Amino acid sequence: MKTKDNKVVIIPNGQIMGGAITNYTAKATRRVDLLIGCGYDDDIKKVRSVLEGILDSDERVLKDPAYTIGLIELGDSRVNFTVRPWVKTADYWNAYFGIQEQVKLRFDEEGISIPYPQRDVHLFPADAGNGNLAAS
Question: Could you give the CA distance from residue 122 to residue 116 in angstroms, rounded to a whole number?
């Protein structure tokens, strides 16, 4: 078999007979699964509204079935939304890349942060007599 990125994949008969085969292009529509994060200081109602606006204005996003946007996780460094629009299978990758690009552009315009993982380090004197510090 030849992949879309021009790799040749050889699958032994045993794997075909005993394993699962996933066909990504068998159906006319496909759901795009995105995880979009914002900062804890951002207004999540505004974030949801911006995400809805992006999906509503993208012609590749199907009206039926309707997209889903949900706050899925209060993560270590960010608030995570799952964004799941449906698109025609042929539009999948263009929609996947395009929606993410629009999220970044619109979040920048709207002053919504996209935090990166960070860690706070607190330094405490280990021994007041020698001046060394200890981290926790």
Answer: 19
CA–CA gap between residue 55 and residue 57 (Å, rounded): 5
pTM: 0.78
Q: 42 with 48: CB under 8 angstroms?
A: no
Report how far residue 133's alpha carbon sits from residue 136's, in angstroms, rounded to the nearest whole number. 10
Q: Flag whether 100 is in a domain.
A: yes
Beta strands in the chain (DSSP E): 29-31, 34-38, 68-74, 79-84, 86-88, 123-125, 133-135
pLDDT along the chain (136 residues), means of 10: 81 75 87 97 98 98 97 95 98 98 98 87 72 59
* Domain with 48 in it: 25-117
